Hints:
- The chain is mainly beta.
- It is built from 3 helices and 12 strands; from the N terminus they run H-H-E-H-E-E-E-E-E-E-E-E-E-E-E.
Amino acid sequence: MEKTFExxxxxxDNIYNEYEEKYFEMSSxxxxxxxxxxxxxxxxxxxxxxxxSGYKPGKLYKSxxxxxxxxxxYGFDSNDLKYAGIYDGLSFxxxxxxxxxxxxxxxxxxxxKKCLDRVHIIYSDINKIPQYSLLLFIDNNIxxxxxxxxxINDEKIARITAYGVRRKNEQVISIIDVIYDVTYLExxxxxxxxxxNNHKTGKRNILQIYSCK
Length: 213
């Protein structure tokens, strides 16, 4: 039986509560075989994370850069992404992601300055094709819950249906209702167009949020 949105949000809250105080445990138990450095985010932690933010993947470095300003380091165990560390403009580590595997899902826990403020859960089928993600972001006591459902065509994500809420003190202050249509140029994302449904005005806004040009 499919879960309600409230039940999905509860899953995110439970994961958050489980790992909120576990930064040092996650950090000390981290085991990686290799590091890869990039000029900005290069690997998506959840499907099309970078492109949905309007950015292009960063360039990979051949080795660890001497200057850490705004760079990202990824840690892999075999071929599995286990860690991502993001440096700020002053070359300090500001945001760290750790992965946790649970059955049919991958969980990324994001600690900003060692405080957990985001949880990403990616559910995939037996062929490791993503089916949907649950996302939680916390900023200034506002919690943003989102469920992204993926429509697959030719083994690529062709459409993302995103629904969610923003809450403050457990009160809903806004609704998230967006459809993202994704087109490709060979294997690279060419364009993402978002159709936003505004529940306050009843209007629909269409805008391009990513282009490879």
